[in-house]
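Replying to the earlier thread about multi-chain prediction with a worked example.

Input:
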Amino acid sequence: MREPATVASDTDEAFFHGDLSSPDPIPEAGIEAAVNLMRDGRLFRYGEDRNSIPEAALLEEEFAAYTGRKYCLGVNSCGCSLFIALKAVGVESGDKVLMNAFTLAPVPGAIAHAGADAVIVDIDDNYLIDINDLDRKAAASGAKILMLSYMRGHIPDMDALMEICHRHGLTVIEDCAHTMGAGWNGKLTGTFGSVGCFSTQTFKHINSGEGGLIVTDDEDIAARAILFSGSYMLYAQHRARPSLEVFERHRYQVPNCSMRMSGLVAALLRSQMPVLDERNESWRRIYATLEPMIAAINHLKMPERPEKEEFVPSSLQFSIDGISDEQIAVFLSYADVHGVHVKWFGHQGPIGFTSRHDHWRYLGGHNSTDVSNADRVLHGLCDIRLPAWLTDEDCQTIARVLGDAMEQAKQH
Ligand SMILES: *Cc1c(COP(=O)(O)O)cnc(C)c1O
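Result:
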């Protein structure tokens, strides 16, 4: 049993005693499957002469079924899945790739890894890709690929976005690191573009420490992705794969980049697939509880979320407005000391997981990219992780700490 995170204190000050960074444990079934695999010793996903079906192949089959996509491939991280997706759709060195300004460092990292040039698209006040800026920059740059990151689980108007992508002939790769099980108007993320990429890093929706999943309906992209991931000529052992003739078209052309998923990771993930929807339901409940409480705090603003957005918030974002940077520093440190760690995207330099486009200086030409709204929005953007175990009482404590922190900041 977890210790209660909200405990009565003898002072008036609210403290949150839980650890917002603590993940859910691996289900017992996953621990047992992992132990069995270790006893067996066959942790590598391919075997040369085995009769049993490898865990990774089963996970891929199950995840393909979950998303309703034909093909699925497990790899060693979402960052690698983004790289493989770029290569599998045919990105060559020097090609331009559009990406939204609000994202995590592995996204520009994957573009750089593929040797491509990022074209950064602005965001709106609700942290979503600015569709008009996408329209402009797609036309001006001639880019043929959009890497769309649903950063922190925020999903733009997919009807409007896909319409623009079709108009410009853009191939869309979806970064679904924060949207496993989320959708737009009844359609899951990862099924809008040519390829969907998911993360199973510890702070995402299912947890194997490291891991990534790629889904697609395109047989050539699927075969190329499998070969890129490092299947050797053992790809027949995949189950969520295209027919073997498709591999004949690619097997002499695609380098082996050794980014495979291990059997151990797959075993841990298979045990979490049955609890994914339940966890997502907890996150929705937690967000719905916290949202009005945070929105009621002076100078804090919650983003507007469209009715059609079916998000699964494993974290929560809000904007701070109308106080100075010094006051923001007081707000952050008071909240931190009282147990609520708030990440801020406005720091001068990159900190922890948090960095901005102006920190990704390896990206060619980014300095000439005008993303002035992103600069303004990110300056006020705050982020807290939401473990799925938070109770209503925990949410009240967290909101109280944030309210007290703002009072302190304003007195400063
Ligand atoms: C975590 C994350 C990634 C990268 O995932 P890894 O599995 O850690 O490589 C990519 N994009 C976003 C938006 C993320 O949050």
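The radius of gyration is 22 Å.

Feel free to reuse this layout for your own posts.
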